[in-house]
Amino acid sequence: MGHSATSSSVVSAHSPSVIVAVVEGRGLARGEIGMASIDLKCPQIILSQFADNTTYTKVITKLKILSPLEIIMSNTACVVGNSTKLFTLITENFKNVNFTTIQRKYFNETKGLECIEQLCIAEFSTVLLEVQSKYYCLAALAALLKYVEFVQNSVYAPKSLKICFQGSEQTAMIDSASAQNLELLINNQDSRSNHTLFGVLNYTKTPGGSRRLRSNILEPLVDIETINMRLDCVQELLQDEELFFGLQSVISRFLDTEQLLSVLVQIPKQDTVNAAESKITNLIYLKHTLELVDPLKISLKNCTTPLLRAYYGSLEDMRFGIILEKIKTVINDDARYMKGCLNMRTQKCYAVRSNINEFLDIARRTYTEIVDDIAGMISQLAEKYNLPLRTSFSSARGFFIQMTTDYTALPSDQLPSEFIKISKVKNSYSFTSTDLIKMNERCQESLREIYHMTYMVVCKLLSEIYEHIHCLYKLADTVSMLDMLLSFAHACTLSDYVRPEFTDTLAIKQGWHPILEKISVEKPVANNTYITEGSNFLIITGPNMSGKSTYLKQIALCQIMAQIGSYVPAEYSSFRIAEQIFTRISTDDDIETNSSTFMKEMKEIAYILHNANGKSLILIDELGRGTNTEEGIGICYAVCEYLLSLKAFTLFATHFLELCHIDVLYPNVENMHFEVEHVKNIARNKEAIFYTYKLSKGLTEEKNYGLKAAEVSSLPPSIVLDAKEISTQITGQILQNQSSTPEMERQRAVYHLAARLVQTARNSQLDPDSLRMYLRNLKKKYEEDLSRVEQVSEKTEE
Ligand SMILES: *[C@@H]1O[C@H](CO)[C@@H](O)[C@H](O)[C@H]1NC(C)=O
Ligand SMILES: *[C@@H]1O[C@H](CO)[C@@H](O)[C@H](O)[C@H]1NC(C)=O
Ligand SMILES: *[C@@H]1O[C@H](CO)[C@@H](O)[C@H](O)[C@H]1NC(C)=O
Ligand SMILES: *[C@@H]1O[C@H](CO)[C@@H](O)[C@H](O)[C@H]1NC(C)=O
Ligand SMILES: *[C@@H]1O[C@H](CO)[C@@H](O)[C@H](O)[C@H]1NC(C)=O
Ligand SMILES: *[C@@H]1O[C@H](CO)[C@@H](O)[C@H](O)[C@H]1NC(C)=O
Ligand SMILES: *[C@@H]1O[C@H](CO)[C@@H](O)[C@H](O)[C@H]1NC(C)=O
Ligand SMILES: *[C@@H]1O[C@H](CO)[C@@H](O)[C@H](O)[C@H]1NC(C)=O
Ligand SMILES: *[C@@H]1O[C@H](CO)[C@@H](O)[C@H](O)[C@H]1NC(C)=O
Ligand SMILES: *[C@@H]1O[C@H](CO)[C@@H](O)[C@H](O)[C@H]1NC(C)=O
Ligand SMILES: CC(=O)N[C@H]1CO[C@H](CO)[C@@H](O)[C@@H]1O
User: Fold this and answer.
1) Ligand 4: distance of its center to the CA of 617 in Å?
2) CA-nearest residue, atom 12 of ligand 5
3) Does the Cβ of 613 fall within 6 Å of ligand 1?
4) Quick one: which ligand is closest to 147's CA?
5) How far is the CA of 733 from the centre of ligand 10 (A)?
6) Residues of the signal sequence (predicted)?
7) Which ligand ends up closest to the CA of 693?
8) Which ligand is located closest to the Cα atom of residue 50?
């Protein structure tokens, strides 16, 4: 079975900037995967190494989450006509990603280890211990750095990179098909729409915060303590308006700190004018960023929750002050980040203080004179021709002349012949003159001189501050995290979300669908969910359109929101941490049944069966639509039986009513249905169906709807054979024995009592009195269940 990717990969809402190198072990180590990735916008290298089997789902999932710009593999993986399976799968799954092969010799693990020793910042050097014997990720790292140096034409400064190793266990796994089904990042109808989970939660103000939110949504946390620390912050932000608004206004002034860091730690191989210019710009950005540290500290001063205090503490790092002081010795106090290219050009030109370099001061005077001359010349021309001429500037053309047509009806061929390169945009003419072109050239020349001299000063400065620059990693982390937490709080103020709790029960009271809320005019119908270890398998029935899919998606979205530290759209909510979230959700066109739909279904379900465990949340909607009724029931039954053997929380929505009777055999099954009301339309003497979107316990009374859904079609016999057998056997039996025996009912009651007791004992936060009360109720409920069973059994015996 291949991977469950349904169509396009999860495309990032941001332009991709990650380069990944992937290498697979050979011979006995086949299946051992090494990966190294770097985000060009954030100088952090992530290494990972793990065992994957022939389906390579882990690699593909990891790659989809990274959403790379480019993938690098060894040339030995793709010999024409004899490529490795991994290579074939990657190229199939990432059709739009640039693919590069480089020689196997560059995948050199010794070199990889050397790279870490050379480039990794001391604070993160424990990574060496972690990866010492992980040859494949080291090999991938060596190849990656070689390639990046080649395309960027620059090398990384020594001890400047953050390198870390990431196992695959610390976050919950959401496969890419599920991410797509749930519309986590991309809306399935309109890829540009922000009606996605990301869109609902994104009120971030910085690119770093936005990136962080995205990666959190795809890989939620699994550690309850960490999640609760985030929730504490969100709660404080919600309770303290001054903190919220103060922090938000500071955070929104930050530029892309990670990207800044990324360019600061690269040393260009050649000194070009462009390289010089961008270094100067970056130094101004650095000054701007460092100047925000104090305001950020002030706004966090009164906060109380541990995580916010920790971030406050991280800002007390002396190095911020040290760097800023050093910068201020050579850079003008008022050199700052400004919008507009001419403004920024002026800032760059005058960034370095005067009296530091005599020749620089002379060059600047020359530059100023030329700029003045240009302005003078243009006003003379305006006088001479009596035209409303203006001096304009663009980075492409330099200085040029602009004139609006509002004041003059002159057609362009009647402009004075002195004016050349005339163009018209909307209601204004742009042109230049031979003299102006010459002056522009002189201007550029003096600017080049200025930039060059400034660059020399800046390089000297940078070499002095390099050793301290790593504090910016911490700052970037602080800013992006605060931005994301603010964003959660912001989303919460707009909709009435509630803080989730973490227990061993999934309980949502009056929860609603966060995305639907944004789309529909009325608030979506809220509903409850309750899954425990004792009844961990919910079968949900109801006709199509009654809201089954929406309900399932709502649960998954709430679970994800809770696990990233956000509040949740409900009145009350409690979650069991899910280590994986799987969905198999049919789309509307699945109703047109044919074998390709069926194959897709089977692939997705096989993926779930292979990878699910007791800590999974599994949502399955309308399985077996792609085939006829008997086969569909058979498949569903087989899948249910397997999933029932796990402790996973499963919600299984189906139109096969036959499946509901599985609860007779398994006490941990709970049946729910969406209510439908029939409304007599007297005028037409017809019945109309009215959907209430209400979920109720028990079976639906609607009998015949669903069966039309599946039509016979040609099917791969091998897959169907098993299912068919089960289908005839089980459905026959089940349908015969629709009513369960009293003995079963009794067992069921005992089972439920036991399950509740275990749960209470393990998870009780009640005080003794409440606990006593709770247990008394439990006992009463059990006695009721039992006496009901007794009555039934007496009746049968009569
Ligand atoms: C893949 O590996 C997992 C264990 O890591 C195993 O349970 C599963 O059966 C394997 N799948 C295949 C198709 O080999
Ligand atoms: C294809 O690759 C495998 C291993 O990578 C090798 O053993 C085999 O000889 C190759 N076959 C051809 C025709 O090159
Ligand atoms: C990726 O490939 C496209 C076309 O194949 C090319 O235009 C683009 O520049 C490439 N990007 C990189 C980063 O190489
Ligand atoms: C790997 O790199 C090390 C050190 O850079 C070098 O000595 C060795 O020859 C390289 N190995 C290969 C196979 O290129
Ligand atoms: C989503 O897009 C709409 C318009 O397309 C805009 O009005 C709205 O503010 C956006 N929402 C968010 C959270 O960005
Ligand atoms: C996130 O929302 C902010 C506005 O709050 C917007 O500027 C930014 O573009 C959004 N990010 C993405 C990736 O849509
Ligand atoms: C912090 O608390 C002090 C005293 O309660 C108050 O004066 C100050 O305005 C607060 N600062 C912020 C940023 O909330
Ligand atoms: C099967 O249905 C899908 C849509 O559900 C369609 O794209 C595909 O072309 C159909 N295939 C055949 C063989 O009819
Ligand atoms: C489900 O709804 C579609 C239209 O939304 C309808 O064509 C189809 O017949 C319905 N199927 C069942 C089984 O009700
Ligand atoms: C169905 O009932 C028959 C007796 O009527 C019994 O032998 C059989 O075990 C029952 N099957 C199930 C699945 O309960
Ligand atoms: C089972 C359940 O909680 N059903 C609820 C679904 O939502 C409607 C409307 O809010 C409620 O009336 C139902 O009780």
Assistant:
1) 46
2) 199
3) no
4) 3
5) 7
6) none
7) 11
8) 1
CATH fold for the domain made of 358-407+417-448? MutS, DNA mismatch repair protein; Chain A, domain 3 (1.10.1420)
What is the rounded distance in angstroms from the CA atom of residue 427 to the CA atom of residue 404?
6
Atom index in ligand 4 nearest the CA of residue 108 equals 1
Domain topology for 499-702 = Rossmann fold (3.40.50)
Q: Which of 229, 337, 233 is nearest to 283 (CA)?
A: 337
Return the structure tokens found at 497. 């979300």
Taking the C-alpha atoms of residue 332 and residue 292, their distance in angstroms, rounded to an integer, is 17
The CATH number of domain 18-165, selected from 3.90.550.10, 3.40.1160.10, 3.30.420.110, 3.40.50.300: 3.30.420.110
**For 103-143, what is each residue's pLDDT tens digit?**
988 999 999 999 999 998 887 877 887 787 788 899 999 99
Q: Ligand 5 within 6 A of 199 CB?
A: yes
Domain boundaries, the chain: 18-165, 192-353+464-494, 358-407+417-448, 499-702, 743-797
Probe ligand 6: pick from 10, 210, 255, max atoms within 8 Å of CB? 210
Residue pair 22/33 in contact (Cβ under 8 Å)? The answer is yes
CB atoms within 10 A of CB 20: 26
Specify the CATH number for 192-353+464-494; select among 3.60.130.10, 1.10.1740.10, 3.40.50.12780, 1.10.1420.10.
1.10.1420.10
Tell me if 72 sits within 8 A of 190, measured CB to CB. no
Name the residue of 53, 54, 61 whose CB sits within 8 Å of the most ligand 1 atoms, as the mutation to test its pocket: 53
| Average predicted confidence (pLDDT) for the chain | 79
HSE-up (13 A, CA, CB side) for residue 624: 28
514 lines ligand 5 (CB under 6 A): no
* Euclidean distance between CA atoms 135 and 47, whole angstroms: 11
The 10s digit of each residue's pLDDT in 739-752 is: 555 665 665 665 55
pTM attached to this predicted model: 0.73
Query: Identical fold at 192-353+464-494 and 358-407+417-448?
Result: yes
